[in-house]
Amino acid sequence: MREDRAAFAEFCGSDELILPPAEAEDLVNAYYRHRQAAIVTGQPNPPQGKRRRSPDPPVFELPPELADSDTVGVIYDEVDGLNFYADYGTLLDLFAKPALAGRKRHQDLLRAYLREESIAPLPIRRLAAAHPETVDAVFRRLLRKPGFIWSEHGDALLRRRKPWYYENDPRPGVSVIGDRLSELLRVA
Predict the structure, then answer these.
(1) Collapsing DSSP states into helix, strand and coil, what is residue 187?
(2) DSSP string spanning 48-93?
(3) d(Cα 57, Cα 128) in Å, to the nearest integer?
(4) Contacts 24+ apart (CB under 8 A), 30-36
């Protein structure tokens, strides 16, 4: 996964992107076509009389809840793997301009990110790290706790809101399979 993440970041220019849904799909498909081409190029020539089977083109489609959002955050993390987040651009705006914390749409979105079990702590941690000067103001307004300080209370907040994430050791978002299993999959 580490190698794939590095290749993704090199291909895309970053391990974190904010794109319209259609562009996110196109970029991920382009990345996987690029990776397939690199793998095929690196394989030995097939035996005499046999043709190299060309890989099927990747077809990555966002699920409807992501495809219908204004923006999609694409984050390929070292621990959590490749993830997609609905309306991540709106959340970024909130952390960039904490005055937006007074708007219902922004509050509801951040609350959903804190509440939903399908969303790991990753996007919130990333935004907090990228905006250390505003993260306290955002959470103070959202939680109505004037003494909230992210560096002191942020980890406890995430552990309280997302206990399922911290109960197990992280697993890679990409599984590497050996040659034999790969061969069996091709035959099947």
Answers:
(1) helix
(2) TT-PPPPPPPP-----HHHHTSS-EEEEEETTTEEEEEETHHHHHH
(3) 37
(4) 32/58, 32/60, 33/57, 33/58, 35/4, 35/7
State residue 40 phi and psi, 5-degree precision: -60, -40
Q: Which residue has tokens 């890989």?
A: 55
- Under DSSP, the state recorded for 15 is S
Task: Report how far residue 60's alpha carbon sits from residue 56's, in angstroms, rounded to the nearest whole number.
Answer: 12
Whole-angstrom Cα distance, residue 119 to residue 18? 16
pTM, two decimals, is 0.81
Question: Can you tell me the mean pLDDT for 8-21?
Answer: 96
Number of Cβ within 10 Å of residue 137's Cβ equals 16
CB 96 within 8 A of CB 131: yes
Each residue of 74-131: pLDDT tens digit? 999 999 999 999 999 999 999 999 999 889 999 999 999 999 998 999 999 999 999 9
